[in-house]
């Protein structure tokens, strides 16, 4: 480049700005979870008293979630789902830690389909050595009752491969009998997911990334970013040599044995759409005449499960027929504050 | 209610929790704009050097925006749009003020369609006395050149009614000639919006709300909320009498003279989708083979307008073909840090 000539804008310049925006987002996410955690706890306290709160919310779930729920899944959810909790397991209370990792816990009544009353799955936000970043998760076994496995062996197969790989110490090993067995199952499934619950067997859109690899990759990434930012400030071309690590292409994707096609997207939709908007979706469910869940019958069905709950008149909750659910980050508000109306028993 | 009996959950309980979530959102929004303002300034500095940056971003706009842009609007945008800026005019630098008000400024090259080189519209987030809250905006005149008015008189009509109402001192006056004239235009338009630029004439999804009314309504709202929260803590039914102000129904909606059907939604989409995701949308435009905007030709066309710009090789900006744009609040990251690659002149 000629002396004194203004360097043109490069993709690098834009990428550096994007990286700075991402740092701000991380800080904002931390702040947000920190401030809203006590409110979510309060909400859970209240919604636990409302029969079928979560089944009704899920009935109104956005398409990102709804498309993965089959009719037999809906039946289990309507009959048995008691509670959902979303946590950010890597956030400590000093306002540091990665706010993008997320734990999703589903609580169920004892039911005819599986032994579990809690299914909890943690999605870790990690960076691979080649620069890829995203969510990864250990597969969670669903203890299906005999003949009830809606995933047709996919969650069991994912857990079996996981355990076998742990024994070998190589989390991408491809020469194990469990690998071939699961690959065959995934092949025969042929792209059409059989059940929402296969999600619990999901590992990664790419491959498993351990905490150690992620820590090392983050360190390299930050070093490289700092070098590039310094270089960008001094001279245009000086940062050419910082990309050696990132050019190591990897070919050990684990797609062939992945049991769910959109595990990451589904986790994000649960954490960022369903969880923050649950009250709005619930209100919307009340306004929706075509609701298939008969919560009044359900109420009497579950009396032996919910020991300390008062029966609740859900219709009394929905006097305000105004607003449909809105995204929380819109202008908010909207409808007038509702009147205090409740029926007595 | 019988003594000692636990009160059932009421819609009021849920609404109070929602109100608390909204307070947290407000605080988070303030923090977010505060932290990201310098980054947006830096981004503008860089993107001003990229010919057709904003036309290419708008070409990739989400459906919420795209549906309001007609082919003749696209032509103006492709030929003349130089820059977009989004500000939060009510935020001061002490971290207070309403973060939901938004100013959207579009800068244009001198062009054959209108005299303006800047069209700026401010959307104020306000509360009406009956409890409604949302965005309202003063209509902005577009100084169309003779015979070029794409809005077919709608923006002029909106401004004329606004001025006439200001003279009477009644911003919802319905007995003015300007009211009948505009109503007739809106009726004849019959629901099919003729141009994106009618947006500049938009006032409200409801009716205009002045700063004074909003201040008074917010004061009432906060008082009422505090009363209800105290009441909710002490006893279930005690807050019955706090709703008198909110029950005052209003019938002076201004729908009959509103020139744009979705002015608020469009403002929110500009501020919360297009603006934060502009770099991602731009990258996406580069990856998109069917782009209709020929930025290389455009580059030479505009040389007389852009005095201090270096010609830029946009293709050099898009070496990374990996990720499509993602919502900023997803797990972020995704692609590997891109290589430093730029072509010399």
TrEMBL record, chains A, B:
Gene3D superfamilies referenced in this protein's UniProt entry, alphabetically: Nucleosome assembly protein
Annotated coiled-coil segments of the chain: none
Pfam families recorded: NAP
GO CC terms, sorted: nucleus
Region of interest (Disordered), residue spans: 230-265, 285-345
Sequence ranges of Acidic residues compositional bias: 237-256, 286-311
A biological process from GO: nucleosome assembly
Superkingdom field: Eukaryota
UniProt xrefs under InterPro entries: NAP-like_sf, NAP_family
Protein name: Nucleosome assembly protein
Organism: Saxophila tyrrhenica
